[in-house]
Structures are given as structure tokens and as C-alpha cells.
Amino acid sequence: MILMSKDKPEKRTYIIDSTAIMHFFPNDKIVNEDSNLIIPDILKSEIKSFQAKAVLEVMDADQRLVYTTPSEHSLIKVKKEAESSGDISSLSKADVHVIATALDFPGAHVISDDNAVQNLCSFLGIKVETLSFKIKTRRVYFWKCIGCSNKFKEKINVCPECGNKLKRFYRKKKIKG
To answer: Buried b / exposed e across 144-161, counting CB within 10 Å, b at 16+?
Structure first.
């Protein structure tokens, strides 16, 4: 009979967002040496700063990173949920790929300090680890005309009814767990 040690942390899969790399991840408090670290291929093009590129190179040298491309099914699901929550206008293509990759690896945790990424992950039931900021409520965004007060689910620049500008608003919902 093999006994499992309670001291050994469980092996987890983490999907790493660009904010984690920019904030000098990896963080030993979040991941351990047995963790699976996954980065969507598209993220390489989003990393611009010298420091963030250096962090990525160090992680690459450790041979702990796995680069992947999310499935089309997961990309569609993320975009649909982002449209529903109103986050679509705040998410980059790389953000969408990070979240979709998490869907492709059930039980994976996303490491991100990005508010929109965290918000959408909460709607999709994806666990998020943060380095400095964690959202406390999930938000459903909408746009409201400053002139006639018409509300819209999608971001548009001017009201089709009166021609005034629209402003972004949100309704808060408690995050469970």
C-alpha cells in the first residue's frame, strides 16, 4: 500500500497571463516545482518590456513552460460569455486565449491581475490566482447614453437614438467561494 504525504502539494496546472509575467512571476507562494505552467502561444507577442521578456526567458530556460493554442470551441465559448458580461471590449486577443486555454485544461488556475480576465473567469467557473489585486465582485457591464439614458449591452460610441456619447456602467454580483 502506498501512503500519500499530506505535506506534498498537489500538482496543479496554471495558465499564465501576461500580467503575471510583467509582475515578475513565478511566485513560490502560488506554484511549486511540480506545477504545470502553460502559456498560450499568442502571449509571446504581447510581451514588450525588457524585464518581462527576461522573466519569460528564465522560465523558458527552466523548461517548465508549455506553449499551446486553445481550441476553437473554447475560444467561441469565451467570446460568447465575454459579450454577455460586457467584458469583450476590455479583453485583448491574448486575454481571450488565456481564458480559453484554461477551459481546455479542466481544473486549471489562471494567474492574472487583469480585472477583465478575473471577471470573465468568475463567470466561467475558472479559479484565479493573483499576484497583487483580486476582484471581490463580478460585474456585468452595459453602456448608457448620457443624453436619453438608453441602455445597450454592446459598446458603441454614440447613441443611435440621440447621437450623444455613451458611458460604461456595471451591476455588481457577489463572487461565490
So the answer is: ebeeeeeeeeeeeeebee
Domain count, the chain: 2
Report yes or no: 18 and 51 within 8 Å, Cβ to Cβ.
no
Residue 170 lies in a domain: yes
C-alpha cell belonging to residue 10: 498537489
* Residue pLDDT, tens place only, 138-174: 888 888 999 999 998 888 889 999 999 999 888 876 6
Write the CATH number for 123.
3.40.50.1010
Range of the domain at 156: 137-174
- Burial class of residue 38 in the structure, from the number of CB atoms within 10 Å of its CB (0-12 exposed, 13-18 middle, 19+ buried): buried
User: Model confidence over 14-25: pLDDT tens digits?
Assistant: 999 988 887 766
Q: Tell me the three cell numbers of residue 26.
A: 513565478
What's the whole-model pTM score? 0.81
CA–CA gap between residue 82 and residue 16 (Å, rounded) = 19
